[in-house]
Amino acid sequence: MLPKMLTIAEIAEILQVSYETALNFVKYSGIDFIRIGRQYRVSAEKLSAFLSKKGQVHIDLVE
């Protein structure tokens, strides 16, 4: 089963920040992402693990 991949817009909504802030977060934070053309995707599992490690928070993003 493939992991759920989040768009920048979905990440912005989860983090409650602007689209630009979420895009910069993905591009410059060191989190693993894939780029398909001009679009970025981050696995929900990787985002949850990254946030847990960096901010000592838990966000359940995996269904």
Outline type: globular
**Helix/strand class:** alpha+beta
Q: Helical amount among residues, as a percent range?
A: 40-55%
In DSSP terms (H or I, runs of 4 or more residues), the helix count works out at 3
Structure description:
By secondary structure, the chain is α+β, with helices and mostly antiparallel strands. It contains 3 helices and 3 strands; from the N terminus they run E-H-H-E-E-H. The protein has one domain: Arc Repressor Mutant, subunit A (Orthogonal Bundle). Helix 1 crosses helix 2. The chain starts with a strand and ends in an 8-residue tail after the last helix. The chain has a 3-stranded antiparallel β-sheet with strand order 1-3-2. The chain has helices at 8-15, 19-28, 44-55, and strands at 5-6, 34-36, 39-43.
Short account of what is shown:
The protein has helices at 8-15, 19-28, 44-55; strands at residues 5-6, 34-36, 39-43. By secondary structure, the chain is α+β, with helices and mostly antiparallel strands.
Relevant terms:
3 strands, Arc Repressor Mutant, subunit A, globular, 3-stranded antiparallel beta sheet, alpha+beta, about 60 residues
Write the layout of secondary structure elements.
Blueprint: E1 5-6, H1 8-15, H2 19-28, E2 34-36, E3 39-43, H3 44-55
Antiparallel strand pairs: 1-3, 2-3
Helix pairs in contact: 1-2
